[in-house]
Write a structure and sequence with these properties.
Number of strands: 10
Mean pLDDT: 82
Number of domains: 2
Low-confidence stretches: 1-5
Shape: elongated
Largest sheet: 6 strands, mixed
Radius of gyration: 21 Å
CATH superfamily of the largest domain: von Willebrand factor, type A domain
Order of helices and strands: HHEHEEHEEHHEHEHEEHEH
Length: 296
């Protein structure tokens, strides 16, 4: 297993068994980390109640005691393990890849890794895969069987159809029943205003949102010396463009699109991260986890 220690996509691509791949990534990434990276988002302070004789002293709110000289315990609304949803984009554009892994292969590996982490810390996790609409959905559960079923679905899923990312996020928000965490994994190739509407709905449903924009290295720095013939993976439409025009148009459009998404997420207090398919899995996961530790 030493060759997999850095968990690079080119090393992980031959590991076709998604269960094994996710296990290697998770164990290689968070081994030795004792504090959960996701716990704590489903407990919301409700009110104080008097401390009862015989309860552990650690339950006493000592700041309240210092001000009132009386012992109180904090009550929380919905004080249970975290309820999480993972929304995975499986539209045709996610099938693009200039390296050993397509965006979709990288994205579903991340999705399996997050599900593994959440179930391991005894949290409930559900998943939805979407393109133009939600193609399959599994309500949150915290069992090992749930993890097995999620990974089984991910193993057989394939990218196809056009995307309506914003509309689907909006539809998914309507299915969320309780406060929790929502991880959206997509290339977000949709109208930013439509995406914003869906994300606002998720925030209204009291979701702590992690938006992961999956990008291929070629999309982050598009260049070339000859004419390009482009084919839209989702619609089949083709067009030929000279290299300079193609590079300027694509790079400007891609940068502006991500800037718009970043602005939307910042305004909604959503954690927005761009993840490239060339980035080692341990690096992307640790970056996301450590950022959340600092924020929360």
């Amino acid at each position: 297993m030493k060759s997999l220690s850095v968990l690079r996509p080119d090393q992980m691509a031959p590991v076709r068994n998604l269960t094994l791949r996710a296990k290697l990534i998770v164990e290689g990434t968070i081994a030795g980390l004792h504090k959960s990276p996701f716990h704590g988002f489903s407990s919301e302070f409700l009110e104080y109640r008097p401390y009862l004789t015989g309860e552990p002293a650690r339950k006493i709110d000592w700041r309240k005691f210092a001000k009132s000289d009386k012992s109180f315990v904090r009550l929380y609304e919905d004080e249970t393990n975290l309820s999480a949803h993972i929304l995975l984009d499986k539209s045709a554009s996610m099938g693009f890849g200039s390296g050993p892994m397509t965006k979709f292969d990288y994205a579903r590996t991340l999705a399996a890794s997050f599900a593994w982490i959440l179930v391991r810390q005894k949290d409930a996790v559900g998943m939805a895969a979407f393109d133009e609409e939600i193609r399959w959905y599994m309500p949150p559960k915290s069992t090992n069987l749930q993890l097995k079923n999620i990974i089984s679905h991910l193993e057989t899923a394939a990218p196809n159809n056009q995307t309506r990312c914003g509309e689907v996020i909006n539809s998914a928000a309507a299915m969320v029943k309780k406060r929790g965490l929502c991880v959206v994994i997509s290339d977000f190739f949709d109208d930013p205003e439509s995406i914003a509407m869906g994300l606002r709905h998720l925030r209204f449903k009291r979701q702590d949102i992690l938006a992961l924009a999956i990008a291929d290295p070629m999309e982050l720095n598009f260049s070339g010396k000859s004419d390009f013939r482009f084919k839209d993976i989702e619609t089949g439409r083709e067009i030929t463009v000279d290299s300079q025009t193609a590079s300027e148009y694509f790079n400007r459009g891609f940068t502006e699109h991500h800037a718009a998404l970043n602005t939307i997420c910042r305004e909604l207090k959503i954690d927005f991260e761009v993840v490239t398919t060339a980035e080692p899995f341990h690096k992307s996961l640790l970056r996301i986890i450590e950022k959340r530790r600092r924020l929360y």
